[in-house]
């Protein structure tokens, strides 16, 4: 409990700093365990940025050492994952908002928070912030948890409301402006009648989807095709890409479970 920021006391209050310290320690431990497992299994680990030179050759650049080397392989697996997407049509989004990747790197409690999106990441974030006592609002464009059972999704939404999370439905953000007091003024539009409203928040967080980490891989040099809409790699039922000896798994693969 202490590692998640809660004191063990009947009048317990949440400590954001303690939670961040616990999360950072846990992440470092995961990384260390992963490196140790690789070493124990005689798997060579490169802490480098990879780009394709040709279908069998990878260039590895280590920015810390300013060193580049190349490796070759008969088979190659791409598992670079993805990063949260910022909208291109919301004024001030990149300058004045964060994404779900940033939430656990904030030095202080995000305070009154607007979460834009209705995915499981958006609802998970809204749920835990509400649980620690924050004022949380979720801005929903269409429906909760698209692609999931909608009866279950509806029950989740009702439960979250009963716990204090607020929802603004059928609406999208138009602009986010930073005020002199540090808050963000969000203008949002109702999609049914076109009316706009404003509200001020301490933090605005986008959880509207993820874009694959493929833009710097030079996939074209390996003949690997991507979906231009989300930059994800197109694979078949065997996880093969358009270049048969190159495979893709996880969030980077188009149309596959995340």
Q: How are the SSEs placed, and which strands pair?
A:
Blueprint: H1 16-40, E1 49-54, E2 57-62, E3 67-72, E4 76-78, E5 82-84, H2 93-96, E6 98-99, E7 113-116, H3 120-131, E8 136-139, H4 150-162, E9 166-168, E10 171-178, E11 184-190, E12 196-201, E13 203-206, E14 210-212, E15 226-227, E16 232-233, E17 246-248
Parallel strand pairs: 4-17, 6-13, 7-8, 7-13, 8-9
Antiparallel strand pairs: 1-2, 2-3, 5-14, 10-11, 11-12, 15-16
Describe the structure.
By secondary structure, the protein is of the alpha/beta class. Helices cover 21% and strands 28% of the residues. The protein contains four helices and 17 strands. It has a five-stranded parallel β-sheet with strand order 6-13-7-8-9. Strands 1-2-3 form a three-stranded antiparallel β-sheet, with no helix packed on it. The chain has a three-stranded antiparallel β-sheet with strand order 10-11-12, with no helix packed on it. A hairpin with a 5-residue loop joins strand 11 and strand 12. The longest helix has 25 residues. The protein is globular and about 55 Å long. The protein starts with 15 loop residues before the first helix and ends in a 10-residue tail after the last strand. The model has no long low-confidence stretch (mean pLDDT 94).
Quick recap of the structure?
The protein is an alpha/beta fold and 258 residues long. Helices cover 21% and strands 28% of the residues.
Counting DSSP E segments of at least 2 residues, the number of strands comes to 17
**Mind summarizing the main beta sheet?**
5 strands, parallel
Q: Strands of the largest sheet, in order across it?
A: 6-13-7-8-9
Low-confidence stretches: none
